[in-house]
Amino acid sequence: MRRILDLIAQHAAADPQRTALLDESIRLDYGELQREVARTAAWLDGRRIAVLMDNGCAWAVVDLAIAARGAVAVPVPPFFSAAQIHHLLADAVPDLIVSDRVDAITALTGLAPIGQLEVGGRLLHLFAPRVSLAPVLPPHTCKVTYTSGTTGQPKGVCLSGSAIAATTAALAEAVQADPADRSLSLLPLSTLLENIGGVYVPLRSGSSAALPSLASCGFSGSSAVQPAPLLAAFHRYTPSATILVPQLLKLLVECLAADASLPGTLRFVAVGGAPCAKPLIQRAWGLGLPVHEGYGLSEAASVVSLNRPHRERPGSVGTPLPGLRVSLAADGEIVVSGRLFEGYLGSDMPVPVEWPTGDLGRFDEDGYLYITGRKKTAYATAFGRNVAPEWVESELTATSALLQAAVFGEARARNVAVLVPHPAAGAAQIEAAVAAANARLPDYAQVGAWLLADAPFTSANGLARPSGALDRQAIALRYANALEELHASENAHVDS
Asked: Which fold has domain 2-370?
């Protein structure tokens, strides 16, 4: 992190009036950013500082100020449930909380703010929890990033400043970052990918980062988004780069197909966070979206591999970034080494030398990595064929007719699916979407039958995790009778 701070200082000295950060209400040039970071750092009297804020210039200033103090940052994802945030705070035991949500923090902790601070045009509130014995941090930790995990209980991933700086440098090189660039953040800055790609990479490169509030871009909750304000954000900030999850990419593709427009400034659109079907990537390119799929995980300090400009291979997640070694175990599990986390908060595990990711993959002859599924969710059919449901689901949701899909088939003669269709999709479109997906899949992975869900899979109804990942066990339980009927029947689909 010291390297990133030093580069910001160099940019401030060389061109202090160059825009560094902007949102819907304020613009900070590099000179102002450096002064704002120094001023904020003087106020943040803590060693372990939790940050619960919406996207904005203020978020980036606070994050950099924590690094400048040599304290440990604990970003709190705004899409976590109240119970998860409560667990995070109890687990991390911060001695200071910085937030723009005074009522939410008071409701969660029972604390009243001890002070206020205006940062980046936003009024922030400071809280000082009564600190008990805090878990010992690995010695080089500068940030604890929390993932929702597969159990729903957030896990604190401890990262060193050197690992974060190395990922930032490697990513800047991979995307050919340029001082003339402007990035647009559409994912929460508390997620490590957006923190690095949306803040550190542009500031390291001397370019600008647009960090509008998520609400101003049309987002509400963890998964709902309105197309009109999202498109307006692109035209307002005219970015050259942005990061998307597959569902956002799908929304933009549908908007473009319906004659919406995006500014011609975009040159690099990264997509990650979940499997993205090859047809969706190809369709995006056909509509003029320069999409580059990548792969990463918090335990490897974010991005592991990425499709580079002019070296794209749709369907793959590109080639590993410099400084990382990616190999495959005998069962196909992806193993990463070379730049890893320091350990989980509260765990006495040794600093890992290599990390089995839990993801399954393969390499092609040119060294491009392909993700084929999750080790824990892969299953064997009654015919002994191994199926990764994420692979099948990404093919199903590659068309506009299907928004979500959950595939099941453990020890069964055929795979079945619970489908969430687009509200405007009719029966014929749904059948065509399933048929199109099956045409791209080998016979053992094809969907033999399906049912329509009575509601989307969301964290609110317990059918998805806060990260957006499906809760397969909950979906299987909710639709247990209908799924059993599908397995027992020769029909293609049943009513749920």
From this structure: Rossmann fold (3.40.50)
Alpha-carbon distances of 241 from 114, 130, 176, rounded to whole Å: 39, 42, 11
Cα 275 versus chain centre, distance: 12
CA distance 40 to 61: 8
User: Of all residues in the chain, what percent carry a pLDDT higher than 70?
Assistant: 97
Query: Whole-angstrom Cα distance, residue 110 to residue 363?
Result: 51
**Longest pairwise C-alpha distance within the chain:** 72
Give per-residue pLDDT as tens, 387-442: 889 989 999 998 889 999 999 998 888 999 999 999 999 999 999 999 999 998 88
Whether residue 150 is predicted with pLDDT greater than 60 in this model: the reply is: no
- Give CA–CA dist 124/106, Å, rounded: 14
Check if the beta carbon of residue 89 is closer than 8 Å to that of residue 156.
no
Local structure of 398: helix, strand or coil: coil
Instruction: Measure CA 310 to chain center.
Output: 24
Cα dihedral sign for 259, 261, 264, 270?
Answer: negative
Residue 445 contacts residue 439 (beta carbons within 8 Å)? no
| Residue 197 near residue 209, CB atoms below 8 Å | no
Q: Where are the domains of the chain?
A: 2-370, 379-494
User: Read out DSSP for 52-63?
Assistant: E--SSHHHHHHH
pLDDT score of 129: 92
Whole-angstrom Cα distance, residue 151 to residue 153?
Answer: 5
Is it the case that residue 151 has pLDDT exceeding 80? no
Architecture of domain 379-494: 2-Layer Sandwich (3.30)
Asked if the model's pLDDT at residue 195 lies above 60, the reply is yes
> What are the two backbone dihedrals, phi and then psi, of residue 34, each rounded to the nearest 5 degrees?
-60, -40
Kind of pairing, strands 343-344 and 333-337?
unpaired
In this predicted structure, the answer to whether residue 58 has a pLDDT above a threshold of 70 is yes
**How many degrees, rounded to 5, is the angle at CA 95 between CA 154 and CA 167?**
55
